[in-house]
Amino acid sequence: SALCMILFVGISRILPLDMAKAVDPLVRSINLLGLAGTACALPFLLFNLSPAKCFLGDSGSMFFGLLLSILGILTAQFNAPSGTAVAASREYYASYFLVPWLVLSVPIFDAVRVALGRALNKKSPFLPDNRHLHRLLHRSGLSPNQTLFLVSIAVLTFGLTAAILVRSNQSPFLL
Fold first, then answer.
1. Over the stretch 88-114, which tens digit does the pLDDT of each residue have?
2. What is the pLDDT of residues 26-85, one digit of tens each?
3. What's the CA gap between 50 and 39, in Å, rounded?
4. Among 132, 128, 112, which Cα is nearest to 120's?
5. Whose CA, among 4, 44, 77, 113, lies 20 to 30 Å from 16?
6. Rounded to whole angstroms, how far apart are CA atoms 147 and 23?
């Protein structure tokens, strides 16, 4: 969660200069929510490294999910035209619609894969099981810290892909 929030903040900071004034309140909102959420998640991470001393409950995971969804919606709003300069170059800003989907692709893919697997096995998609990505990696022999590192690398890879996508229309060499 902390890494996704940092990615949303970072992507909002790499706006082109001609767009920065048009969406300044939106950037401030993303920065405030993203940095506040990261400040909540990082201390928890220190206590959750193996051997874990505390665990995130349902309320905590729903809180971080809410923050990530709000950040995704706010980031996709860069796509919405709000002035003549923004509306004139609409095709450049369409890439911001893909940013939340790329940054959150690992948890989205995991949730969809598990829910479809439960439904295909004629079980309720809302019942818990041990088929999530982190459980599969742990059963394959990775330690909890190695699993955290591998999932973080996957999230970082998709997040950097989103950042490159945002900047690629300005500079085709990045793509």
1. 455 545 677 888 999 999 999 999 999
2. 888 899 999 999 999 998 888 888 788 888 888 999 999 999 999 999 888 876 555 545
3. 20
4. 112
5. 4
6. 37
Other C-beta atoms lying within 10 Å of the C-beta of residue 86:
18
The total of other beta-carbon atoms located within 10 Å of residue 6's CB is 19
CA distance 138 to 160: 25
Q: Are 23 and 82 in contact (CB under 8 A)?
A: yes
pLDDT at 13 over 80: yes
pTM of the model as a whole: 0.84
Q: How far is CA 57 from CA 27, 67, 99, 174, in A?
A: 30, 16, 28, 40
* CA distance linking residue 88 with residue 73, whole number of Å: 22
* Cβ atoms of 25 and 77 closer than 8 Å: no
Confirm if 71 and 33 have CB atoms less than 8 A apart: yes
